[in-house]
Design a protein that fits this description.
Belongs to the bacterial solute-binding protein 1 family. It comes from Actinomyces weissii. The protein is α/β, with parallel strands linked by helices and 423 residues long. The protein contains 18 helices and ten strands.
């Protein structure tokens, strides 16, 4: 799942369109006629356009020999692939840490930041998430994690307080909370699963704790088609998804993501199974809602992890034309004040160990980041040709674990075999 698809806001749309239309004028930066080095910042977050404009302007003012201009691209991966075919690599890039990032990194087009010193201060547990997605070579780190999201459960603190329940620390306790809320006539969860991707957060967060030897390690083994590994091994995850889906509103299958945000903001449920990316959208319907977060609990509290994705990473080409100037900009953007400003505005987790989330709604997950108890998204290991979201959605509607396992095994084997043959 990409954050762009989850967090599309009306604010800034006109600005985004203007930048996209002007994008062609920004590409191909280099030494300008004014004697300055002109750099392009290829940027994909529509809701962060104004902030990155400010960051660029501040850098340009402090570095009179360099001009960095933002080039917003809504369809960033499509646009980037089209340019890479022509050998046109942007000077600087923001990119989402998902399957596409890993696939591109494996083509060896990105810079190796491991020896650069720019990773100093970045939470190692977060930095390693990018490495698990793919690298250009053993021991490399091809992106700098800038901002993270957390995939847990969002809850209405006021509803919890009125019902006399506390955030659970084990799966059994979560079910007890659901039973108590149901007995009081409160929807434990507010579900909205008309959009297929909304079925994925529960799968990601449950599998993150269940796969105790590592999410990426399990999928790497599953990619060995002779290993005998099967999605049957994830049946306990699917069973918990089915169990939780039984607690909540009856109209869940007819509601889209935005309907879910609005309904939860209106107090129609106590919990909302989405990552922290949903918080700005919820608040857009009710700015006074008292939100909290807790990690999706495992059977044992000691096994609980927060699934986290690198919402924004910075990278650049393997052989940058202006390495010194690019480095100066990265040092600028990674400064604590800039990361703090971005994370406060976007309701995200900073990746520097010296910083913590300040938003009250994020505090519940912060200890897991501090302790390195994080796991990557399962869905980031699926090639796009495997329509995971559609299969998970159908499973929630039918409750048929056997059918889901059979479908995933068959599709995974076919697609992975094709991927390997094309390498």
């Amino acid at each position: 799942m990409t954050a762009l698809s989850r967090r599309s806001f009306l604010a800034g749309t006109a600005r985004a369109a203007a930048l996209a239309a002007a994008g062609a004028t920004v590409t191909g930066c280099g030494a300008g006629g004014d004697g300055k080095v002109h750099l392009e910042l290829f940027q994909f977050k529509s809701e962060a356009i104004e902030l990155f404009d400010r960051i660029c302007a501040e850098f340009n003012a402090a570095n009179p020999d360099v001009v960095v201009r933002q080039n917003f691209q809504a369809s960033s991966i499509t646009s980037l692939r089209a340019r890479l075919v022509k050998g046109d690599v942007p000077d600087l890039l923001t990119i989402n840490g998902d399957y596409s990032y890993g696939a591109l990194a494996r083509t060896k087009i990105f810079y190796d930041f491991r020896p650069s010193g720019l990773l100093d201060g970045v939470n190692p547990a977060i930095a390693s998430i990018l490495d698990t997605l793919g690298t250009g070579g053993q021991g490399q780190t091809n992106g700098i994690a800038f901002a993270d999201n957390g995939s847990g459960i969002i809850y209405n603190k006021d509803v919890f307080a009125q019902a006399g329940v506390e955030p659970p620390s084990t799966w059994a306790q979560l079910i007890e909370v659901c039973e108590e809320l149901t007995a009081q006539g409160i929807n434990p969860f507010y579900w909205a699963t008309k959009d297929s991707w909304t079925s994925s957060p529960a799968f990601a967060s449950l599998s993150g704790s269940f796969l105790t030897d590592g999410v990426a390690a399990w999928y790497q083994q599953r990619a060995d088609l002779g290993s005998g590994t099967s999605f049957r091994e994830l049946s306990p995850v699917f069973e918990k998804m089915r169990q939780a889906y039984g607690y909540g509103n009856d109209d869940k299958a007819s509601l889209g993501y935005n309907d879910g945000n609005q309904g939860f903001a209106q107090g129609k449920g106590a919990m909302y199974w989405h990552g922290t990316y949903a918080i700005p959208a919820i608040r857009s319907y009710n700015e006074d809602i008292n939100l909290g977060t807790f990690a999706v609990p495992a059977d044992s509290a000691a096994d609980t992890k927060v699934v986290s994705g690198v919402d924004v990473a910075f990278t650049m080409g393997k052989d940058p034309k202006h390495p010194e100037e690019c480095r100066r900009f990265l040092e600028h953007v990674l400064a604590a004040e800039n990361m703090r400003a971005y994370c406060q505005e976007q309701v995200a987790y900073p990746t520097l160990t010296s910083l913590s989330a300040q938003d009250p709604a994020l505090v519940g997950l912060q200890p897991y980041f501090d302790q390195g108890r994080v796991a990557t998204y399962s869905d980031h290991s699926f090639p796009p040709a495997i329509t995971l979201n559609a299969y998970l959605q159908q499973f929630l509607f039918s409750g048929d674990v056997d059918q889901l396992v059979s479908t995933l095994d068959n599709r995974w084997d076919k697609v992975i075999r094709r991927v390997k043959e094309s390498e």
